[in-house]
Amino acid sequence: MSEEGFGGTIAASWRRLRQLLRPRRELPAHLRTGREGEQLAYRYLRRHGYTIVARNWRVKGCRGELDLVGWEGSTLCFIEVKTRSERGLVAAELAVDSAKQAELREMARHFLRIILRSSSPQTRLRFDVVSVYLPPGEKPQVELFKDAFAWRTMSGMRRRR
Description:
The protein contains three helices and five strands.
């Protein structure tokens, strides 16, 4: 191995080591709440028969992400998770407004084009919303809204019974 190649390897290793040892900044409270809610939603959906195939899925150059993507039986579900530290005047699921729905539809189209190139045209698709509430000192509350909105227009939130 040349001296230059060896030195480059050492320099790269040193940079990586410094990166790993750098003190991590604590996430802001709202991001910690969001992550905790997504983890609770993930476990909730798994317990209710979903097979999760992607978490926090993004496409370079596109705004937004798909929080969770999973199969419920033969239906592919794109799942948005909304977490709140307490119940307020407005329900968490109502934060999935028309602009957010359009963003999720766009991300779902990318997912289907990139990941499921070989999917059948008969594959059933659905958008679900999970609301997670984390009231201080109380047990977390999770609500699932299956088929929360359609590919083109709002169809109304439907609560899982």
